[in-house]
Design goal:
The structure is a single chain. By secondary structure, the protein is α+β, with helices and mostly antiparallel strands. The protein has one domain (about 5-215): ECO RV Endonuclease, Chain A. Helix content is about 35%, strand content about 25%. It is built from four helices and eight strands; from the N terminus they run H-H-E-E-E-E-H-E-E-E-E-H. The strands form two sheets. The chain has a five-stranded mixed beta sheet. Helix 1 packs across helix 2 (about 40-55). The longest helix has about 40 residues, at about 180-215. The protein is globular, with a radius of gyration of 21 Å. It starts with 10 loop residues before the first helix and ends with a helix.
Length: about 220
Amino acid sequence: MKQSPIFEKGQYKAIEETIMGFLNSQKDFLSGRTVTSPRAVGDALQSLLEESFGKLLAEHIKEYSSNFARRAMADLAFTDKYGFYHVIDTKTHRLDTVFNMPNLTSVERLARYYEDDKNYFDLLVIAYSPKKLHLNVQKVYFVPIEYLDWDCLTIGALGWGQIQIANSNNIIVDPEQTRKKWMLALCDRLMEFYPNEISKIGERIEHFKKVREFWLHKKE
């Protein structure tokens, strides 16, 4: 599979540096109330990026959009100058939090989307520490999902299964990992995940059989 030149060595790293420099150059844009709320910070950062992302990556972008419904796969999207289509899921991570397990995307939705080799599902992860009303962005990841090592991912029981970062404090990027290898690993994990879910469902059925018996014999 031919890869977008954006993810050739050096290119995506330069993009990460550009985004981090831009965010750190912003004047204080949060209030004392919002700076303590990771959700409010995330919304503010996403708003900044929606307005500026197309300009920041102008040399790579042919068409850019940030107008998506809340439950859409993307927060941002663009077609690069090489004909590849990128949807971007933006995540923010406050570094002094002990644990953070963000959802990325549905396994079924990703499998359908990746049937076209021209499609990319990219992650834009912004790791920051608050300093008064300023955000100190210490790390930016801008990578396709297949660059994330499975040692830092997990699958959650939502719908067909939801790919999650197991802990945002431990993101492992492997740019040598091919999409084919990553998708085969996803399928292998699902072959273990689904039987475990079937077993759990069986236990839940037995539990609520007992709950039903309890209520059958209860007086009105």
